[in-house]
Design a protein that fits this description.
The complex is a heterodimer of chains A (about 350) and B (about 775). Chain A is built from 14 helices and 7 strands. Chain A is an alpha/beta fold. Chain A has 3 domains: about 20-185, Rossmann fold (3-Layer(aba) Sandwich), CATH 3.40.50; about 190-235, no CATH class; about 250-350, Zinc Finger, Delta Prime, domain 3 (Up-down Bundle). The chains are: A alpha/beta (about 350), B alpha/beta (about 775). Chain B: It is found in: Nucleus.
Chain lengths: ~350, ~775
């Protein structure tokens, strides 16, 4: 009973649907004896992980799909115990250092060095090196990134690093220069539609053209999201018709509602209500950046075009300060307060 | 512009009028209520002025109120009440005239009318007589050497001819020792507690004592010990000693100056608590009655048991449990973790700070005896500034007596200011001071920053929580005459405050990361002072619930978020083998799609069992546990929330779902390190892989290993658990494999359970 998105995930380079030239490049890279460090970047749902796993399969063969999860415990200098989960096969290891927050440097130092200093035991392995995949690399602290740079050069014989991230902007220059940058762009609407049709045929469901296009557009280039939306829509109502509404996810609806409330009334009282709603979103683990972005996009749909640039600038400013700070709610609230003040004045001046 | 002038806080034209000088005590026996803001003098100053001339200032209008002083923006309720009670209303000029013209009256606190130059006034004599009565009553039974005081006090003295400094009674004793209470009536405040303590001690009997904390809470007679707690200087030790003395007990005291480690307490005290003194039997007056000279143990300053007194409290508790003599424990801070364990074994008695009225009489008579003349409202000022610390008041006065014989209101203010306790203000008080219009404008920038430093981690959060509830005064002043203008300005003020708070967050982050504590003042300004500047004003009425500012919601929300983050992380980790998405993607895309899949089948009426099987199969596919099922629903909002999704699932189905899940066995991607313990480290082998066949192979290996480990280390609970679980899972998988389809899972589960049971029995046997 796997979801479509997992059931029909391509498992090898040959089965990949789009970005043919990239696939080609990856295949050649896997064939050549010289395999560089990779920095794979692109928006979520574009297929980064799928491609990484396909390349590894190309290099090491079937065994790389036999995964296990371990849990390792580290002791910080301040005697705090931190635990990290490691997904690994015989040839590669995958970690998400951001799971341990600001202690990620320790994980990088200890764990990666440990891997780097041991040679591949399996003599039947096709390559002498092992691969370490670092997920969410853009959330790596600067310290951790610096800890990584020397390791990457020194243990080149034993170790390749694949960094997987949404954007390269927060990867420090030295790391970027040590990696081959691989961009996995978001699939176009047509490509998404194509994949969806393929899945639909395998699953034996029918997707009307307009309905499919609507999902593809709404997914915003996120194939994972598109397929999950398709499945949710199917659970809710099947067969599809062209004018069938596409259900938004819970949090998207909630933010949309919030945006409506903000635009409808600008008072301290309302600001207080909004604070409650923002807390609600944060408590349900919606990333603050996502909240700010979605909220901004929902708001600008509802207001006069004239003040849109200003709102976007405000949102950008607060996203920046939110990343620099540590309490996201303050920045979200400041954004809402600023918008309210701006919009109220705008409406007032419009009346006169 | 009219609004600007009106709403402006503080005096509109400070200093434009001359502050009147009146005769001493000219406002005696008059009660004033202030409402609104006066024009040339701030309200606080005006109140001080009234107090200086002997008047009383109260907060609300009552029948006893003599005058209501009305300023601008006066409170409507006070005015109507004043009108209904026919209380005279004064404006600022009226008040000043009253002070200028009123005749001075003798200080009622002084029992020597002759000393005052204004005694000739006819009206004054009557009031003096009135006031004399209670003081006389208070002191009449109090001191044995009263007559000498009177004689001294009545010595004719005029203001001019007063000797420069009358020599004090030459005594080396401190006032606090000298005027220690000698009977129950002398104790200031906490009368009921003292009575209770006396009754308890009188009726103390080891045999009636109970061990149960609940019983002790209700009835002090049931407990062997009493724990007295309260702020310093209000007479806890004094009361304990007094009661013991008057009830005829011999006092054995231990305080912070004694070593009170487990050993010493045991050695010294145990002997005593388990026995009787010889004096009890031999003393003459106790002939025939054993009760006469019993002992009481007073453990003073128990919260001060320090590192050197290791185990002292525990030993004390042991002693209390077996004691044959009553024990009184005294502490300041009942919440202190040191005392916490003690609380359950004692009757809890809390001493409160005495009110001004309770201490005033006694203090006045002491001062009289010492030849110090206290003016009107002086005691009140001292009590307020020291927070009812009687000991401190007496010490202050005795020092002051060395240089002067008279303490006027102004001097008392000075005195209390110079010796003001640096007491901690509660976060709510600090928030109030920062956000309320009057107090914000009255305090200097440095004062406000000082408030931030009273608790620099909590105050910014308090401000952040509460700034939003303010109606900013600034908006009324700069927003122009229209309401809409002011509303816009109010939002602007809030936005500026929010911006400042957001910026402060960045500052604090930098400060934490670089450990640059020099940034604290800057953070204080941005997080506290600046937002308070923008938003200070009055609290918006509809938000004013619970009678104060709210505690920061951020703390609770943050921990809630942390908890949910952990749940999400766990869910993501379990799904990890099948899903490549990170945490955020799992939450944002997967969970909304998954939540219905995990609940809808349960709602199908036709066959709950098939629904349950479908859900469990989906869960197994993603390695989700029953706990994850709950987590996923908890993480959803609105239409994906647990409330909506589980609505319509009959309770019977839900319980049968849980039962079925627990009965059957499920693939697990991994075991947590804590469960496995050290033993499993070496035996990594190949891990379980996505499909069931692999699980079987892998598990078989692990089973073998587990058994070996069971042999090797019998006491390892982790290993034992490992055996059970892994065997069970392997068996389940095997059963599934054998039957070849998922529909017989229940049967397989049963078999698995059986085999698991037998194998765990087996491992137990091995142990034996």
């Amino acid at each position: 009973m796997a979801l479509y998105v997992d059931k029909h995930r391509p498992s090898s380079l040959d089965k990949l649907d789009y970005h043919a030239s990239l696939t080609d490049q990856l295949r050649k890279m896997a064939a050549s004896p010289d395999f560089p460090h990779l920095l794979v970047y692109g928006p979520s749902g574009a297929g980064k992980k799928t491609r990484i796993m396909a390349v590894l399969k190309e290099i090491y063969g079937q065994t790389v799909e036999k995964l296990k999860i371990d849990q390792r415990t580290f002791l910080t200098p301040s005697n705090k115990k931190i635990e990290i989960n490691i997904v690994s096969s015989n040839y590669h290891m995958e970690i998400t250092p951001s799971d341990v927050g600001s202690n990620d440097r320790l994980v990088i130092q200890e764990l990666i060095k440990e891997v780097a200093q041991t040679q591949q035991v399996d003599s039947s392995a096709k390559r002498s090196f092992k691969v370490v995949i670092l997920n969410e690399a853009d959330t790596l602290s600067k310290d951790a990134q610096h800890a990584l740079r020397r390791t990457m050069e020194k243990y080149m014989t034993n170790l390749r690093v694949i960094l997987c991230t949404n954007s390269t902007s927060r990867i420090i220059g030295p790391i970027r220069s040590r990696c081959l940058l691989v961009r996995v762009a978001a699939p176009s609407t047509d490509e998404i539609l194509q994949v969806m049709t393929k899945v639909a045929i395998k699953e034996g469901i029918h997707i009307p053209d307009a309905f499919g296009t609507k999902i593809a557009e709404m997914s915003g280039g996120n194939l994972r999201k598109a397929l999950l939306m398709l499945e949710t829509a199917k659970v809710k109502h099947y067969p599809f018709s062209n004018d069938h509404p596409i259900p938004l996810t819970d949090w998207e609806n909630y933010i949309k509602e919030t945006a409506k409330l903000i635009v409808a009334e600008q008072t301290p009282k309302r600001l207080q209500d909004i604070r409650g709603r923002l807390y609600e979103l944060l408590c349900h683990c919606i990333a603050p950046e996502v909240i700010l972005k979605t909220l901004m996009f929902d708001i600008i749909k509802l207001v006069d075009v004239g003040i849109v640039p200003e709102i976007v600038k405000m949102a950008a400013d607060y996203e920046q300060s939110m990343r620099l700070g540590s309490k996201p709610i303050f920045h979200l609230e400041a954004f809402v307060a600023k918008f309210m003040a701006l919009y109220k004045r705008f409406l007032f001046e419009l009346m006169q | 512009m009219k609004i600007l002038a009106k709403k402006n806080s503080g005096p509109a034209a400070p200093g434009t009028k001359e502050i009147p000088v009146g005769e001493e005590n000219c406002l005696a026996n008059l009660t004033f209520v202030f409402t609104g803001e006066l024009s040339s003098i701030s309200r606080d100053d005006a109140q001080d002025l009234v107090k200086r001339y002997g008047g009383r200032v109260t907060g609300s209008v009552s029948g006893k109120t003599s005058y209501v002083v009305v300023g601008e923006e006066a409170g409507a309720s006070k005015l109507t009440k004043a009108a209904s009670l026919k209380v005279k209303q004064l404006d600022e000029d009226g008040l000043f005239d009253l002070i200028r013209n009123a005749k001075g009256k003798p200080d009622p606190s002084s029992k020597a009318p002759a000393t005052k130059k204004s005694t000739s006034s006819a009206s004054a004599t009557t009031s003096a007589a009135e006031n004399k009565a209670p003081v006389a009553a208070a002191s009449s039974s109090f001191y044995s050497n009263k007559s000498s005081v009177d004689a001294k006090g009545k010595a004719p003295m005029t203001e001019a001819a007063r000797p420069p400094l009358q020599p004090m009674n030459q005594s080396s004793e401190l006032w606090t020792t000298k005027y220690k209470p000698t009977k129950y009536d002398d104790v200031m405040g906490n009368k009921s507690n003292v009575t209770k303590l006396a009754t308890w001690l009188k009726n103390w009997n080891a045999s009636t004592a109970s061990e149960k904390p609940a019983a002790m809470k209700e009835d002090p007679g049931k407990s062997r010990a009493i724990l007295i707690s309260g702020p310093p200087g209000i007479g806890k030790t004094t009361a304990a000693h007094l009661v013991a003395k008057l009830e005829g007990f011999e006092i054995v005291e231990f305080n912070a100056s004694d070593t009170r480690s487990k050993k010493t307490v045991a050695d010294v005290v145990k002997e005593m608590t388990g026995s009787h003194t010889l004096a009890e039997y031999f003393s003459k007056e106790s002939a025939g009655q054993h009760k006469a000279k019993r002992q009481v143990l007073i453990m003073d300053e128990v919260d001060g048991m320090s590192a050197g007194d290791r185990g002292g409290i525990a030993e004390l508790i042991n002693i209390i449990k077996k004691s044959k003599i009553p024990i009184i424990c005294i502490c300041n801070d009942r919440q202190s973790p040191k005392v916490k364990s003690l609380v359950n074994h004692c009757y809890d008695m809390r001493f409160m700070r005495p009110k001004t009225a309770e201490v005033e009489k006694t203090i006045k008579s002491i001062c009289q005896k010492e030849g110090l003349d206290l003016k009107f409202n002086v005691v009140d000022t001292l009590v307020k500034s020291t927070q009812s610390d009687i000991r401190q008041i007496l010490n202050m006065l005795s020092t002051y007596r060395l240089q002067s014989q008279e303490l006027s209101f102004d001097q008392s203010r000075q005195l209390s200011q110079s010796s003001e306790k640096n007491m901690a203000k509660s976060p709510w008080d600090v928030t109030g001071t920062l956000l309320n219009r009057g107090s914000f404008r009255d305090s200097s920038f440095a004062d406000k920053l000082e408030l931030y430093f009273s608790d620099f981690s909590l105050i910014p959060l308090m401000i952040q929580e509460n700034y939003i509830k303010m109606d900013p005064t600034l908006a009324h002043e700069t927003g122009g005459p229209t309401k809409i203008g002011q509303d816009i300005e109010a939002l602007n003020c809030l936005a500026n405050a929010a911006e400042s708070i957001a910026f402060a967050d960045v500052v604090s982050n930098v400060q934490m990361k670089t450990q640059n504590w020099g940034l604290l003042p800057f953070h204080g300004v941005m997080s506290t002072v600046r937002p308070a500047f923008f938003t200070h004003g009055t609290v918006v009425a509809q938000n004013f619930y619970g009678g104060g500012f709210a505690f920061p919601g951020w703390l609770g929300k943050n921990s809630n978020q942390g908890k949910n983050m952990r749940l999400l992380k766990e869910v993501q980790m379990h799904m990890r083998l099948h899903v490549s998405a990170d945490k955020n993607e799992v939450r944002q895309s997967y969970l909304p799609a998954m939540a219905p899949l995990l609940t809808h089948p349960l709602k199908e009426s036709d066959g709950a069992t098939t629904g349950i099987e479908t859900v469990i199969r989906t869960m197994d596919e993603y390695y989700l546990t029953r706990e994850d099922w709950d987590s996923i629903l908890d993480l959803g909002m609105e239409e994906c929330s647990a409330k909506v999704l589980t609505d319509g699932i009959p309770t019977a189905v839900k319980t049968s779902f849980t039962r079925t899940y627990n009965k059957t066995n499920h693939p697990k991607p991994f075991m947590s390190a804590s469960l496995l313990g050290k033993a499993s480290r070496g035996g990594g082998g190949g891990g379980p892989a996505p499909d069931l066949e692999d699980v079987v192979e892998v598990d078989d290996e692990v089973v073998a290993e587990g058994d070996e480990e069971g042999d090797a280390d019998d006491d390892d609970v982790g290993a034992d658990r490992l055996i059970k679980q892994k065997v069970a899972r392997g068996a389940a998988a095997a059963a599934k494999k054998a039957s070849g389809s998922g529909t017989t899972a229940a049967r397989g589960g049963k078999r698995a359970a059986e085999s698991a049971g037998s194998s765990s029995k087996g491992s137990k046997k091995q142990k034996k």
